[in-house]
Design a protein that fits this description.
141 residues, mainly alpha, Sufe protein. Chain: A, 6 helices, 3 strands, 50% helix, globular, Cysteine desulfuration protein SufE, Fe-S_metab-assoc_dom
Length: 141
């Protein structure tokens, strides 16, 4: 797991339940805006498992690092928090590091005690689709 993401996981796992929700809100505000090239979600994949519209795009760079882009409406703070966590935690990560992220990431963070199982499934689907995009890009290269 990339070091930045491991640190975020540890922070959440050790935080009291009442602080976890505040931490999620902070990450929901940390989603970088989309570049103009992805305006209108052009070339992005929608994650239908999410209750709200969520789009993502992973680009594997020539040096093997991955650039991620996420878009989700501000009125869906929990889902946006998943995007913020991944955007920050995976910044500068290699394709191999991203593919090694455990599928039960959100359970390891202790989020099951703070948010609904439906939201956890949505977050898990986001991670799964992101990893699938990275794996496809690596196999094409």
């Amino acid at each position: 797991m990339p070091p930045k993401l491991a640190e975020i996981v540890d922070d959440f796992a050790s935080a009291p339940r009442e602080v976890v929700l505040e931490m999620l809100l902070e990450f929901s505000d940390a989603v970088p805006p989309l570049p103009e090239s992805l305006a209108g979600h052009e070339g992005m994949e929608q994650v239908p498992e999410c209750q709200t519209q969520f789009f993502l795009k992973a680009l594997v760079q020539p040096d093997g690092t991955v650039v991620t882009h996420f878009d989700c409406p501000p009125e869906a703070p929990t889902t946006r928090a998943f995007a913020g966590i991944l955007a920050e935690g995976l910044a500068g990560a290699s394709a191999e590091e991203i593919l090694a992220v455990p599928d039960d990431l959100y359970a390891r963070m202790g989020l099951a005690q703070a948010i609904s199982p439906l939201r956890i499934r949505g977050g898990t689907a986001i991670l799964g689709r992101l990893k699938r995009q990275v794996a496809a890009a690596v196999s094409e290269a």
